[in-house]
Amino acid sequence: MSDTPVRKIIHIDMDAFFASVEQRDDPGLRGKPVAVGYAGPRGVVAAASYEARAFGVRSALPSVTAMRRCAELIFVPPRFEVYRAVSAQIHAIFADYTELIQPLSLDEAYLDVTANRRGIDTAWATAKEIRARIFEETGLTASAGISYNKFLAKLASDHRKPNGQFAVTPDMGEAWVEGLPVAKFHGVGPVTADKMKRLGIETGADLKAKPRQFLAANFGSSADWYYGIARGIDERPVDPNRERKSSGSETTFDRDLTEPAEIEAGVLRMADDVAAWCESRSMFGRTVTVKAKFADFRQVTRSRTRTQPWREADQLRRASVDLIRSLYPLTKGIRLVGVIVSNFEREVDISMPLLELER
């Protein structure tokens, strides 16, 4: 028998963070469909309120598409300085409960509360108290997932959104994963989910049934990760010092594109998405890379590095378009484009007895 205590991990995820801040600060927006971003032919939705999501409006959606889905949609320009200030308030609350905080973005983080700094009876009660304090001090709601590892905690935080929490205990973790669609798994994107579906993998149970050799043959270096999470296993620690090395966004087109204007519109949407991420986290990189996948699945990248970080969205947009244009003239259609920023220079850092996991 191991004497190592079961870890107690909480994943806190703010509810529609950017849009909720705007609705908090402008009572006229409350209860209405709100998109943070810019309207116009080349605009992109950075965030959407729950009222807007009911119409199918999501982040990274082109603004013109969002307006078609919801004619009453209200666009609000982003105020990243305000979001950063609110995020700092939230992280200060986290610090009252643990030193082991791993921010994923301005609006979500992992907390390892295995060491019970405040002497609260359970991890469930700890998450509840944190959420109550966030609401009291910021006027915003948060959802929480509680479990014995990061993978399950992140899945659990989605289970009672918005303004709820859910726990996955050690005795239920493996069976709970079996019943979930793999498309919901963190680390399984749309392209991988489609590939898994073609291989007959649609649920956690389907993934668990595949032997390790099968996963290695089809998913290479990701095989061990998929093998583990299908069994509710994730040994990754909550790492307060983890630095993100890059940020990227990509899209797969409905059809193979050959027209430069259509391809470049896709690149611009991805550049805007990445620029918003960089701005929201005050993390700016010196290298921009454009990725393109052709109809025959051949993939190419083009990069540009400079001495100063790409801080302005317009600069990033121009550089991304210049890089995709270096692939012209095309001999095959393009099915996917992506934009990645790397070589970050971070400007602003947002920085006992054991708990029982059960309620």
From TrEMBL:
Q: Which SUPFAM superfamilies match?
A: DNA/RNA polymerases, Lesion bypass DNA polymerase (Y-family), little finger domain
Instruction: Give one GO molecular function term.
Output: magnesium ion binding
- Subcellular location, record wording: Cytoplasm
Q: Which domain of life is it from?
A: Bacteria
Positions annotated to bind Mg(2+) = D13, D107
Q: Where is this site: Substrate discrimination?
A: F18
Instruction: One Pfam family, please name it.
Output: IMS
Segments forming domain UmuC:
9-189
Q: Signal: present as a keyword of the record?
A: no
Alphabetical GO CC annotations of the entry are:
cytosol
Q: Biological process GO terms, please?
A: DNA repair; DNA-templated DNA replication; error-prone translesion synthesis; SOS response
Specify whether Nucleotidyltransferase is a keyword of the entry: yes
Keywords on record: Cytoplasm, DNA damage, DNA repair, DNA replication, DNA-binding, DNA-directed DNA polymerase, Magnesium, Metal-binding, Mutator protein, Nucleotidyltransferase, Transferase
Q: Which reaction does it catalyse?
A: DNA(n) + a 2'-deoxyribonucleoside 5'-triphosphate = DNA(n+1) + diphosphate
Which cofactors does the annotated protein need, by name? Mg(2+)
Name of the protein in question: DNA polymerase IV
